[in-house]
Amino acid sequence: MKITVPTLLLDKEKCLRNIRLMVEKARRNGLRLRPHFKTHQSAQVGEWFRQEGVEAITVSSVRMARYFANHGWTDIMVAIPVNVLELETINELASRVRLHLIVVNEEVVPILQKGLNHKVAVWLKIDTGYHRTGIPATNYKTIDNALQTIAATDKLEFQGFMAHDGHTYKQTDAEAIRAIHQTTVDHLNQLLERYKGQFQTIELSIGDTPSCSILETIVGVDEIRPGNFVFYDLTQQHIGSNTYNQIAVCMACPVIAKHSERNEIILYGGSVHFSKDVLSQSDGSNLFGRVVAMTGNGWTDPVEGINLVSLSQEHGILKATDEQFANYSIGDIMYILPIHSCLTADSMKSYLTLEGERLEHLAGLPESYLQFPRPHSVWRTCECLTSEII
Amino acid sequence: MKITVPTLLLDKEKCLRNIRLMVEKARRNGLRLRPHFKTHQSAQVGEWFRQEGVEAITVSSVRMARYFANHGWTDIMVAIPVNVLELETINELASRVRLHLIVVNEEVVPILQKGLNHKVAVWLKIDTGYHRTGIPATNYKTIDNALQTIAATDKLEFQGFMAHDGHTYKQTDAEAIRAIHQTTVDHLNQLLERYKGQFQTIELSIGDTPSCSILETIVGVDEIRPGNFVFYDLTQQHIGSNTYNQIAVCMACPVIAKHSERNEIILYGGSVHFSKDVLSQSDGSNLFGRVVAMTGNGWTDPVEGINLVSLSQEHGILKATDEQFANYSIGDIMYILPIHSCLTADSMKSYLTLEGERLEHLAGLPESYLQFPRPHSVWRTCECLTSEII
Lengths: 390, 390
What we know:
Two copies of one chain form a homodimer. The first copy, chain A, has 390 residues and is an alpha/beta fold. The first copy, chain A, has two domains: 11-231, Alanine racemase (TIM Barrel); 244-347, Beta Barrel (Lyase, Ornithine Decarboxylase, Chain A, domain 1). The first copy, chain A, has 13 helices and 22 strands. Chain A has helices at residues 12-28, 43-51, 62-70, 87-94, 108-115, 140-151, 174-195, 209-214, 234-239, 271-274, 322-326, 341-348, 376-389, and strands spanning 7-10, 32-33, 57-59, 75-81, 98-103, 120-127, 135-136, 156-162, 203-206, 223-224, 249-259, 264-268, 279-280, 286-287, 289-292, 294-295, 298-299, 306-311, 315-320, 333-338, 350-353, 358-360. In chain A, the strands form four sheets. In chain A, strands 2, 3, 4, 5, 6, 7, 8, 9 and 10 form a nine-stranded parallel sheet that branches. A six-stranded antiparallel β-barrel of chain A has the order 11-12-19-18-15-20. Chain A is elongated, with a radius of gyration of 22 Å. Chains A and B meet through strand 11, helix 12 and helix 13 of A and strand 11, helix 12 and helix 13 of B. Chains A, B: Pfam families: Ala_racemase_N, D-ser_dehydrat. Chains A, B: GO terms for molecular function: D-serine ammonia-lyase activity.
């Protein structure tokens, strides 16, 4: 397939290898792998997980839950504090899948109990140090109250405690990541000890890609929810989660101008394609992507002497050495590893595999595609139409 | 219409006022207004321009050009160095609209001459100080050569010199913006003087929102191409281009958690909604948006004591004073002015007007919608289907 515009390439072999490594690690450690599908948001990539035996998934929105429920997933955690304004869709979902919701504040519990028509699993989100959201791990009074309120409902089945160590993303040292992980596991196990008399089963769930990638042995939890590992990216490589060779997505962008006076190459490919996520370099400069070369069956590790250093809406600027500057011409396609694969995929809205297959991304489907309620006839027409056009 | 998920609101009255002010300024100065439609990317917003007499537009991709050509626009500049890999679509477009392409490097000229089936207008992009792309304004040898090569073709009609003063975006002082603008106008007029003997007509085109907003009198050019002014945003307000009251788009996001231990409110609304663009504050902190309150017919200026200070993929964190923290509850919708309206609109992919009308955005249309070539029957089916579902 001829590439003429910015395109997100997906190396299926690398992706399958990433999936299999994590599936195997979870199996070896006796853990349920509940991968976070917000990274790929693709029904087809989801199937690759299913083929490896994965049955439970994590998503970051109710809309994403509907999308994957429509593709046959029946055990779904919406890993964001529950949005009580979406009760209508939550009810529709809870009528057909095992739905897991996240509670952070006690006051949502009576709203859920009143509004739900079906039972759902609920997890208390615990803040073990990231400080984005969650009840602080030693704030027992708040946790006591929340659990009492949950226990008094008949719609909310308390499932356990979950945490997300987003602060591992700021680390570049494996020992620091291990320490963060251990603190979280200790906190969650203290809560397990405290409350295990009150509930028949309490599960513990964690799930950042750095911990799940760097640790070989994971004990003291029941479930892991990493997401980014399916593709990895330059941020995770910088953290130490993966090698360059494991990065499974790559942007392909046309060269549209060259500036010999300052060794800069202009790409058709900007912030609406890559997203604005950036890796700050030790010299204070910004890195928005690194250049690789295509081989017969994939791409190389990044080449030296040329980097994506700036993005505006549709333009990207590469800064090069004399030698690298001479290697690329207007009309060439250049290949760039992304800084943050989740946001790049969400911006690009579809994938092209190295075999030339187009894979869908939820963000590329029209808003109306998942609109609820939806007449069955329109649903069918739309699916036919999509397959006809693509 | 009940809002339950992150939604981009559009105040049509403010937007129309922004459009009319710029149309009137262009008319008063005897300039052609060729607004940059990359900010809104919406057929319906385009109609509001048409109603004010605008006939020529700017876009940032060939895809966007096709979208607006399909909606009846016939004079379109693709304001990015021409992507020679898209000649097939360029030819299709050039067969039905007056298409303006941008040349930066001489070597694209023979590629265009060979590949084009129809005449197009070409502009030389001149770098007058922004240093993103363009031929340096005093690099006469390069400009001489490029113009000679263009003059020798029969498909490329040299239209004039164009520049984009993107460096005004880094200013917060009207005098600095005036100085940048004047430098650019001087450079372009020097080129006009130098080459006016060789070409029957040479037009000069400029077009950043700060200059076009701040200057009342614009002389020495033929055309202005501002884009962001249709909505404005906090970045432009910071620069001095607009008042808060002129910002015509606003995010509506549900409150999903509250953290009284640190006066933080968690929104359902993250970087996939707002984009990651940020305003660095003088104290070193990051600003991702400011809170407004809804009134009977729109929204207020930003309130003090509460700001959007952090974004992850789907979460936003607001930091508040005690008083402001108490003002918002879980399940409320909060209203946030965006940092960069172009990227927020591109992320959100549609608009909801205050009157409850849904407006489309090109990014929200399926990739296949504009695919080329496209069977006419499928095109019609898809349009019917879209109107049926929405």
